[in-house]
Structures are given as structure tokens and as C-alpha cells.
């Protein structure tokens, strides 16, 4: 049978497969490689945990989680290993891969845990080194002040050589108190967050009732906190106090504020020894940490070589077991039964895959492949490529086509970019869009391998749509004769100025010296003249009506094509004919008057003709277009419901059995027919038909007016382009200052790109989308089907 490609969906068949259990896995795998069979779930009543291969699916999901963990580790380590081609040594089965992935995960987790502990220790030692340095400076400065005071005679020699080495830090407080009350002082050192230090100091002061002495020094560079791992700014502190009760209070306050406390020896020799030990241990730990990181990078690099292959392998196995869970298992558990849909043209490929699977598995029994007769509605399948896929997505966003109804996608390839270009007509802007689309197309392999953002991915997916939109924009821009709103004189104009200086061209107008029309596009003399807007508005408004009527008539004709294909004579005589009559009796007549006025140059007032067609209908109804429009309304409303009732009664009585039957396609696609088991309700059918009639009658008026958006957006684009050119570019170039000219050129380029090439492009795109979805497709397109979604390895790889 001849393939229908985009115009109608592929002819589908419902098939049944009966496969041995031992070869079921390989059979599904081979079918997934060709990607032409859409399986049906035969166990809808079972939950995912009650299915036969639930454990296998769970194992695949667990492996997918581990592979995602490997990907995250590669990203975290900023490693991008080169993907090398697979060799025979790299080919492993799923069981071996599962064991390997488990071992690699355990190894990576152990490396990460050890590295985390080492890093935490390094952070603690770094902070300890800062505390030792700052605290040591406290004591060093105190001893220096002691020596100075001793030499000046302030302190007695006996007090200097006493056992209390902390005494100089509290010299002022000691001199103000009785020496008999001095006790043995203690101190606590540590580091606290700089943002908490003021509160920390105040609370310690209140808790000890002022019986403490605190010195602090901020660490210059932010350091990594050992507890949280965050890089924060900290302050080193030392608190002197008296008594064990004060020690307990200060310790609790330090814990509450997250301050890290460290031991600090009082003896200077022990301090120097401790600092040396900390520095030596830091070097050793950093060396160990670097070795661990190198080992982790080597493991991740070896994983990265085959990670993409492993991901595809796990996705394939998961999809295969998910499909096996959809199959029905017989009582003996020796066979699996599958049902699904496939294109008729793909049957030989499916049978060949079944034979290869049985041969490779050494199965004693081949899989049984048979076609089922059913009245279920098949899925819709349009075979697309990278050029047509974007246009088909535009149609499918409105709704998936019903099985084998006319697909608007093949018409959208031309009509969508053309209607966009009618609203975006400027060949300078079209050239910019063409260059951008060519850049995306020439580098599509590079972009396909990258992970793009949502907006960029959408733009890249529609690169061929943008290419056609740019071609048609250049074409319509040449017709409008607009290049950044500037006209070009490619041929000799039919008008000339009244004098050589053309001083009164914009006030008195021009003189027509030739009756030969301008060969192509708009005569450039119209631009900037007094009658530019009236002329262009009239031309674009009438052109919009003609384009709208052409597209709406195409939609009505396609409804006839659907009815003819499905052998539905009722839709032909009581839907297509009256709709075509009503639409053309009013607005088709208006379109003919527009063409006559353009061809003959008549001065007929079209507004007058249309208005008085409704206000003063002529006495000769045979020549009155309103008469045929009025006749078409009851023609659409009444005959079809009664015809359906008559056919239903005949079928129930058995006199003309099969009139409503015919092929399976007829029973599926008769629009107003109920199922055989339901009772026919004439009132319900009448209401349904009345809704369709009112919708078409009112839609004929509103849809025709909706096409005037072509005129409105074209005018807006032209005027915006003219304003930017006159008020920014020309105004800036009227000055001789090169800086002003440069700023004007930059502002003009930014305004053109942001407003005309981005905002106006999006606006024209959305309006063209509305014209196709509402004004065009509602004439014939049902859009209540469902997509053919076969099990395919290629789809899984592309999604991955």
C-alpha cells in the first residue's frame, strides 16, 4: 500500500505476539532496536510492585541511581573524560555491569568518606594554626610589656619571676585590687564566627558578671569551618577567668555559639613545639589528601570512558523489563502474550526481528506473530524527519490527529512561515533571521551534543521553521519594498515630481506619467508620500481578507476530503456543502469584489456593498448573496440529525444491516455516531448539531475579521522600523560628532534586535499560530487521537 507520510497517518495493525518465556527478553530487545511496535498494557489492574519483573525493574532503577551518582561526581570533580570507541573488551553483559557498578560505588563512597574526614582534619588544623598564631601574639606582647615595665620600675622583680605568667595581661585590673585576693587564673582559647562575636562577648560578660578578661583578633582571610565545611570569616579569642564555675559557663556559651575551643600550652617552649607539630601534620595530611584526590580522579576518568554506554545499556534493560511487565503470563508461566500496534509496512521487519531473536536464543519454539481484528481506535503515526518534525510539533501541540484524518502538518510547512512573513515583511530583518538559522543548521551536530537551556533548545529545534520564515520574510519584504523601512528603486517608477527639486512631493503629491504598473512589489514613491498610509492600509487589509478566505476555504475543502476518505456522505451533503455555500456567499463574494476592483480599477465601495447586503436585501433573491447564506444555516442544522435517526432505526430493525458499518475505519470516524450498544437520542444529536452550526456561523464572521491581524501587525512592524530608522539612526547621523553617531548606531542596533527581531518575531509567531489553530484547523481537524509511541532504543539514547 502507498505510504501516506504527512498527509494521513500510516495504516496501523493490532498484532499479538506469543513468545516463550526463555526468549522473551531478547525478543523485546530486538523489537526495541527496530522501534516499530507500540505495546499495550495487558495488566492495568496490577500495581508496579505486583508485576512479574518488578524486582528486575527495581534493580535497573538502582543501577540508574548509581550511574547518576557517577555523573554527579564527574561534574563535581570538573572532569570531562574523552569518550573512546567501544571495543570487544568493553562489551559486558548486564550481570557483570551490575557487579562492576556496585564495586565502583563502594570504592567511590569510601574514597569520598576518607577524603571528607581528611579535609575536616585539615580544616581543624588550619584553624588551630590561626589560633596558635594569634594567641601566641597575645602572650608575646604581654611578656614584652612586662619587660618594659620591669625596666621602668613599675613592677617588682619578684612578681615578674612568679609562677603566674598571665599576670601582665591583667596588669591594670591587678593594680587596682588587693594582691591578697589574686587567685590562680584560667583561660580558654578558640575561634568564633565574626558575625556572632559581639553577642558572644556580651553574653560571656554577663554570665561571669564582669569577672573575666577577653582579647580578640580577627583572622584576615575567610577559613573553612571544620563543622559545616563553609568558608566563613572568624575571630580568634582568649578569655581569662577565675574559678571552675566560670569555666563551665564559658564552655557552655562557646558550644552554644558554635565556637571551636583549642588547647593552648602556657609554656613558650611547648607553644613553639605545638606550632611546629601542627605545620608538619598539615603538610602530611595535605599530601595524603592530594594522593586520595588523584586516585579518585583516576577512578572517575576510567568510569567516564564508558559511562554513556552504561547509561544507555541500563536504560535499555529498564525499558525492556518495563515492557515485559506489560505482557500477560499464561498459567504455566512458559509463555508471554503481548499485544500492540505497528505500521502495516513494518510487519516484515518485525517478523525478521522475531526470527533473529529465536535463532540467537536457541529457542525451540519461535514467537507466534498474528494480526488481530479489532474496532479499537489505532494510534496516529506520521513519519517525520528533522525538517518536518518542528512543523508537526506545532500541529500536535493543538491536538494529535485522529487516525488517518487529514494532517494539517503538510500544509503548515508552507502556510505557517508565509503568514508569519506577511506580518514580518522586511527583507533586511529576514536576512538576519536567515543568517541565524543557517548558523544553527551548519552547527547542528555541535548543538545536538550539548545540553542547551529551555529557550535555546526550543529555538534550535525550530531552526528549519526559522529558515523558512526568513525566506518568506525576504519575499514579502521585497513585495512591500522595505529594507529597514527604506524603499529601493529597482525599476523605473510610474510617478515623477512636479519639479526637479521635488520640494512639494509630500504636499502637492506626484504626477503619474506612465500607466504601466511597477514590475514587482510596491512602487517606492508611495513611501513617505501623503497617501502612503491610506494606500498601504487599503492594500494590506484587502490582502488579509483574501488570504483568510483562501485558507478557510482550504480548511472546508479538507473536511470534504476527510468525509470522502471515511465514506461519510452525510458530512459531505449536510456539512461540507452548506458550510462552503455560507462562507462564500458572504465573504467569498467580498473577495471577488476585491479582485474585480483591483483588476478593473472600479470605484465600488466595498463597505457600502457589505453593509447594505444585510440592511436592504434585494427583492430579487436569486441575485442576493444573503439569501444563500440564510438557506445554508437550516441546511447545516436539521437534515443530518434526522438522517442519523433514520439510519439508526433501519439498523435496529435489521432491514439495511451494515449501512452504518462498512469498514472499521468508518465505525471509528463517524463523527456523530454512538456506539452500537447505546440508544440513539435525537434531542442530544440536535443540540450537538446546533452547537456546531452556531459555532461555524459565528466563526465565519469572527475568523474573517481575525485575519485582519495580518494587516495590523504588518503595519505595526513597518511603523516601528520607520520610527527607529528616522528618530534614532538618521537623527544621530545628522550630527558631525563621531561619538553621537556611534551611540546612535549602537542604540539603533539594540532597538532593532530587541524589539523587531525578538519581540516582533515572537508576536508574529504567536499570531500565526493562532490563525492555524483556530481559524484554519477548526474547519476540519478533530485532533482527539493519541500518538504512536513505540519501544525504541534510538529514542532512549536521544532522551538520555
TL;DR?
Keywords: Coiled coil, Hydrogen ion transport, Ion transport, Membrane, Transmembrane, Transmembrane helix, Transport. The protein is built from 25 helices and 13 strands.
Task: Give a topology summary.
Blueprint: E1 12-20, H1 24-34, E2 38-39, H2 54-76, H3 94-152, H4 157-160, H5 171-175, E3 185-193, H6 197-207, E4 212-218, E5 223-224, E6 231-232, E7 234-242, H7 244-256, E8 260-262, H8 268-324, E9 328-329, E10 335-343, H9 347-360, E11 368-372, H10 389-396, H11 409-423, H12 427-442, H13 444-448, H14 454-461, H15 463-480, E12 495-496, E13 511-512, H16 532-565, H17 569-600, H18 606-615, H19 625-637, H20 639-653, H21 664-669, H22 682-706, H23 709-733, H24 738-776, H25 793-799
Antiparallel strand pairs: 1-10, 1-11, 2-10, 3-7, 3-8, 4-7, 5-6, 9-10, 12-13
Helix pairs in contact: 1-8, 1-9, 2-3, 2-8, 3-8, 6-7, 10-11, 11-15, 11-23, 11-24, 12-15, 16-17, 16-23, 17-19, 17-20, 17-22, 20-22, 23-24
Main location: membrane
InterPro entries: V-ATPase_116kDa_su, V-type_ATPase_116kDa_su_euka
Coiled coil: 94-135
Amino acid at each position: 500500500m502507498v505510504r501516506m507520510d504527512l498527509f494521513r497517518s500510516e495504516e496501523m495493525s493490532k498484532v499479538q505476539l506469543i513468545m516463550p518465556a526463555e526468549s522473551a527478553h531478547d525478543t523485546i530487545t530486538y523489537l526495541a532496536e527496530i522501534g516499530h511496535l507500540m505495546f499495550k498494557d495487558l495488566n492495568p489492574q496490577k500495581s508496579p510492585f505486583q508485576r512479574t519483573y518488578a524486582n528486575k525493574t527495581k534493580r535497573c532503577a538502582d543501577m540508574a541511581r548509581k550511574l547518576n551518582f557517577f555523573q554527579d561526581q564527574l561534574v563535581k570533580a570538573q572532569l570531562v573524560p574523552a569518550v573512546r570507541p567501544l571495543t570487544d573488551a568493553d562489551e559486558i553483559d548486564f550481570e557483570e555491569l551490575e557487579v562492576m557498578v556496585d564495586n565502583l560505588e563502594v570504592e567511590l563512597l569510601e574514597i569520598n568518606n576518607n577524603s571528607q574526614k581528611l579535609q575536616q582534619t585539615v580544616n581543624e588544623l588550619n584553624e588551630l594554626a590561626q589560633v596558635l598564631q594569634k594567641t601566641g601574639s597575645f602572650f608575646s606582647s604581654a611578656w614584652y610589656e612586662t619587660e618594659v615595665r620591669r625596666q621602668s620600675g613599675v613592677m617588682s622583680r619578684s612578681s615578674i619571676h612568679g609562677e603566674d605568667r598571665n599576670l601582665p595581661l591583667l596588669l591594670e585590673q591587678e593594680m587596682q585590687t588587693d594582691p591578697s585576693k589574686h587567685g590562680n587564673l584560667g583561660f580558654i582559647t578558640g575561634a568564633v564566627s565574626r558575625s556572632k562575636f559581639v553577642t558572644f562577648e556580651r553574653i560571656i560578660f554577663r554570665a561571669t558578671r564582669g569577672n573575666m578578661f577577653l582579647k580578640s583578633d580577627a583572622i584576615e582571610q575567610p577559613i573553612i569551618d571544620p563543622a559545616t565545611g563553609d568558608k566563613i570569616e572568624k575571630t580568634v579569642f582568649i578569655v581569662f577567668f577565675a574559678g571552675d564555675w566560670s569555666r563551665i559557663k564559658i564552655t557552655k556559651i562557646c558550644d552554644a555559639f558554635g565556637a571551636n575551643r583549642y588547647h593552648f600550652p602556657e609554656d613558650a617552649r611547648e607553644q613553639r613545639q605545638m606550632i611546629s607539630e601542627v605545620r608538619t601534620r598539615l603538610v602530611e595530611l595535605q599530601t595524603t589528601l592530594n594522593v586520595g584526590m588523584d586516585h579518585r580522579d583516576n577512578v572517575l576518568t576510567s568510569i567516564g570512558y564508558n559511562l554513556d554506554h552504561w547509561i544507555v545499556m541500563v536504560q535499555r534493560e529498564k525499558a525492556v523489563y518495563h515492557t515485559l511487565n506489560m505482557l500477560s503470563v499464561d498459567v504455566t508461566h512458559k509463555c508471554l502474550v503481548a499485544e500492540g500496534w505497528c505500521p502495516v509496512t513494518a510487519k516484515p521487519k518485525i517478523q525478521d526481528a522475531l526470527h533473529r531473536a529465536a535463532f540467537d536464543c536457541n529457542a525451540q519454539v519461535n514467537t507466534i506473530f498474528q494480526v488481530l481484528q479489532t474496532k479499537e481506535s489505532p494510534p496516529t503515526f506520521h513519519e517525520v524527519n528533522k525538517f518536518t518534525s518542528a512543523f508537526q510539533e506545532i500541529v500536535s501541540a493543538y491536538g494529535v490527529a485522529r487516525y488517518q484524518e487529514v494532517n494539517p502538518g503538510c500544509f503548515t510547512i508552507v502556510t505557517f512561515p508565509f503568514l508569519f512573513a506577511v506580518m514580518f515583511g522586511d527583507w533586511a530583518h529576514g536576512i538576519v533571521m536567515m543568517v541565524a538559522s543557517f548558523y544553527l543548521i551548519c552547527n547542528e551536530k555541535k548543538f545536538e551534543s550539548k545540553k542547551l537551556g529551555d529557550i535555546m533548545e526550543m529555538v534550535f529545534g525550530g531552526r528549519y521553521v526559522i529558515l523558512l520564515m526568513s525566506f518568506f520574510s525576504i519575499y514579502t519584504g521585497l513585495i512591500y519594498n522595505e529594507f529597514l523601512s527604506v524603499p529601493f528603486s529597482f525599476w523605473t517608477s510610474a510617478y515623477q515630481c512636479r519639479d526637479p527639486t521635488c520640494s512639494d512631493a509630500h504636499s502637492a503629491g506626484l504626477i503619474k506619467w506612465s500607466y504601466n504598473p511597477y514590475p514587482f512589489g510596491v512602487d517606492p514613491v508611495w513611501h513617505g508620500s501623503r497617501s502612503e498610509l491610506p494606500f498601504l492600509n487599503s492594500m494590506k487589509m484587502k490582502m488579509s481578507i483574501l488570504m483568510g478566505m483562501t485558507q478557510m476555504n482550504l480548511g472546508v475543502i479538507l473536511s470534504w476530503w476527510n468525509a470522502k476518505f471515511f465514506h461519510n456522505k452525510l458530512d459531505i451533503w449536510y456539512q461540507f456543502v452548506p458550510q462552503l455555500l455560507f462562507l462564500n456567499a458572504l465573504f467569498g463574494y467580498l473577495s471577488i469584489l476585491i479582485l474585480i476592483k483591483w483588476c478593473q480599477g472600479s470605484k465600488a465601495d466595498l463597505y457600502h456593498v457589505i453593509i447594505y447586503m444585510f440592511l436592504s436585501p434585494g427583492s430579487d433573491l436569486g441575485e442576493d448573496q444573503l439569501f444563500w447564506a440564510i438557506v445554508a444555516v437550516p441546511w447545516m442544522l436539521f437534515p443530518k440529525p434526522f438522517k442519523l435517526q433514520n439510519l439508526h432505526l433501519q439498523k435496529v430493525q435489521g432491514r439495511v444491516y451494515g449501512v452504518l458499518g462498512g469498514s472499521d475505519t468508518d465505525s471509528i470516524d463517524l463523527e456523530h455516531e454512538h456506539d452500537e450498544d447505546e440508544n440513539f437520542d435525537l434531542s442530544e444529536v440536535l443540540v450537538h448539531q446546533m452547537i456546531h452550526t452556531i459555532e461555524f456561523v459565528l466563526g465565519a464572521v469572527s475568523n474573517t475579521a481575525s485575519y485582519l491581524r495580518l494587516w495590523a501587525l504588518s503595519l505595526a512592524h513597518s511603523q516601528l522600523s520607520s520610527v527607529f530608522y528616522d528618530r534614532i539612526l538618521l537623527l544621530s547621523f545628522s550630527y558631525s560628532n563621531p561619538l553621537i553617531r556611534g551611540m546612535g548606531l549602537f542604540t539603533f542596533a539594540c532597538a532593532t534586535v530587541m524589539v523587531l527581531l525578538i519581540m516582533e518575531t515572537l508576536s508574529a509567531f504567536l499570531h500565526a499560530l493562532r490563525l492555524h489553530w483556530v481559524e484554519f484547523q477548526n474547519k476540519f481537524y478533530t485532533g482527539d487521537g493519541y500518538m504512536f509511541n513505540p519501544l525504541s532504543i534510538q529514542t532512549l539514547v536521544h532522551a538520555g
